[in-house]
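Notes continue from the previous slide.

Worked example: a multi-chain complex. Inputs as given:
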Amino acid sequence: MERTFIMLKPDAIQRGWMGEILGRMEVKGYKPVAMKFMRLPKELAERHYGEHKGKPFFPNLIEYITSGPSLVMVWEGDGIIAGMRTMMGKTNPAEAAVGTIRGDLAQQTGRNLIHGSDSPESAKREIELFFNDYELQTWNRSIAPWLIE
Ligand code: DAT
Ligand code: MG
């Protein structure tokens, strides 16, 4: 089963949207594998967003992402990497579809609430960056056959 790295950014925590966003992931049937509530150290934030280093928005991005606690997580599900990108909506919330997390709950790219891995390669890299093996829970739910045929 596919795994992805999800982070509820400091604005999601400050605005009280943890429950709403986690609720959307739960009703979809996705399964949590790991969660940590943490304020990202600057070095970790810079490594996580390494692909954007040098871009004009990079300093603001690092300042925002390290400004308060985030909820960092690993979730599992069938096609969850693409599925979560769809549920999140476009990077710019002004362009994100109604019904998506960013489309419904945010206004600006610099305050877009949530991060989700964009490919299997980034999912693997990001999960390894934030979690040790022993922090990832392998567990089964009795409802699994009602979600995955
Ligand atoms: P996503 O978060 O949808 O994967 P991304 O990887 O291109 O988007 O960028 C990472 C974050 O950087 C994004 O959530 C917000 C910020 N960002 C990206 N492009 C930006 C821009 N043009 N102006 C300001 N912030 C930007
Ligand atoms: Mg990205």
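Summary box: The chain has one domain: 2-147. The mean pLDDT is 98.
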